[in-house]
Amino acid sequence: MNKVYMETYGCQMNVYDSEIVKRILTDHRFELAEKPEEASIIFLNTCSVRENAQQKVFQRLHVLKKLKSNNKELIIGVLGCMAQSMRQELLNGKAGVDIIAGPDSYKRLPDLIENFRLNGEKEFELTLSEYETYSDIFPEPDDDVNAWIAVMRGCNNFCTFCIVPYTRGRERSRDPYNILQETQKLAEQGIKQVTLLGQNVNSYRYNQYDFADLMKIISEVDDIKRIRFTSPHHKDFPLKLLKVMAENPKICKHIHLPLQAGNTRILDLMNRTYSKEEFLDLVSLIRQMMPDITLTTDIIVGFPTETENDFLDTLDVITKVEFDAAFMFKYSERKHTIASRKYPDDVPEEEKSSRLIELVNLQKRIALKKNRQHIGHIFEVLVEGKGKKPAQLLGRNDGNKIVVFPGNGASNGDMVSVKIEEATANTLIGSAV
Ligand code: SAH
Ligand code: SF4
Ligand code: F3S
């Protein structure tokens, strides 16, 4: 009667939030189901960032709805960003959704379930909070090596293409000492690496503490060997933060620094608050202070009015910076956003596709070149699990690159020195030394 099955879409914040939801529900005498067929309640924690992310969820709902014919009591709920942005579409009878809860409403879930059972009417709770940080809930990590920790929630940046400020609400940060407690508890459970999360993680601020202070505090936990963070914004990289990163061996030398576009006019229309030159300047400063830094990025092609010539600036920045990896997307117009109101989605689909292919091909060549430069190097690899091949282990180096090597008896959570012998665009291959 009270078995819950959860499925998660979207970013790491959603992965963390799903762990919070599981903790809230198990604290209220719900149990977790392994499969949707075994569940009396199915929750999808969803993402709205691009149209295809939403399509995936609607397709999944269509499949899950069929389970209701065998199980009349089955409750289907939609959580997360789509709950917030697609309320009308989800509440319409066709979707088969009974409960809708936005990212700040998870503590209400036990009530929403109870009310639905009592009244049989669709329940929703979509209030966005200026305060909710779930700091009183320490979720159980899904993994035995890495744990996510949300340190701030929401976003105030309003990049014109992005729906996140509308689905996640305003920025708010957690008390650093509360985050420290969560980290200590994770360390006691054997976690070796924490990844600090926020929609705009480096704009973290709690009273006098900024993001650099927070990382310093967290790094005092002995058994935590590595600290990562995602996603930062260009505007919040004071020298102090770069110094703390450079000096603190536990803070991984990897920055995911979303570029979005290389052309200054497009960056202005996107409200990214930096020019092409300012982005390149920050990259130079970062490299000056941390020569071995791994840099990754996010890029959107085909933002409204982007010409072939504007797109060449994106290729130019990619060529100059040589990111180690990139997530690359076609612009997808989102409801509510400033771009959807001000700028018609005017770049033809074929143009978007051909730009994306060109970009992906260029980036693949760069990634391969950069990975091949690692051949002969020895990296400390934090073992995460088994590789695809028999007896192979998989882990990551400090720069977050995947390293596979023949098993040497090491277990998950061990640090192993691995000498790199081969490289593909995505993986480093070596053996323990
Ligand atoms: N807060 C993070 C990322 C949020 S969304 C940041 O600022 O970096 C993750 C990525 O999805 C973005 O970096 C962007 O590249 C992409 N994205 C967001 N909205 C999009 C849209 N409307 N169309 C295509 N890609 C989008
Ligand atoms: Fe979206 Fe921009 Fe906020 Fe990132 S910084 S979540 S891209 S509005
Ligand atoms: Fe998607 Fe919401 Fe994350 S829109 S990317 S799940 S913040």
Describe the secondary structure blueprint for this structure.
Blueprint: E1 3-8, H1 12-27, E2 31-32, E3 41-46, H2 51-65, E4 75-80, H3 81-85, H4 87-91, E5 99-101, H5 109-119, E6 123-125, E7 146-150, E8 152-153, H6 164-168, E9 172-173, H7 176-188, E10 193-197, E11 205-206, E12 209-210, H8 211-218, E13 226-230, H9 239-247, E14 254-256, H10 264-270, H11 276-289, E15 294-301, H12 308-321, E16 325-330, H13 338-342, H14 349-372, E17 378-386, E18 392-396, E19 402-406, E20 415-423, E21 427-432
Parallel strand pairs: 1-2, 1-3, 3-4, 4-5, 5-6, 7-10, 10-13, 14-15, 15-16, 19-21
Antiparallel strand pairs: 8-9, 11-12, 17-18, 17-20, 18-19, 20-21
Bound molecules: S-adenosyl-L-homocysteine, iron/sulfur cluster (SF4) and FE3-S4 cluster.
Walkthrough of the structure:
Helix content is 35%, strand content 23%. The chain is an alpha/beta fold. Strands 2-1-3-4-5-6 form a six-stranded parallel β-sheet, sandwiched between helices. The chain has a five-stranded mixed barrel with strand order 17-18-19-21-20. Strands 7-10-13 form a three-stranded parallel β-sheet. Helix 12 links the parallel strand 15 (294-301) and strand 16. Helix 8 packs parallel to helix 9 and helix 12 runs parallel beside helix 14 (349-372). The radius of gyration is 22 Å and the shape is globular. The termini are far apart. The structure holds S-adenosyl-L-homocysteine (SAH), iron/sulfur cluster and FE3-S4 cluster. The site of S-adenosyl-L-homocysteine has 17 residues, from strand 15.
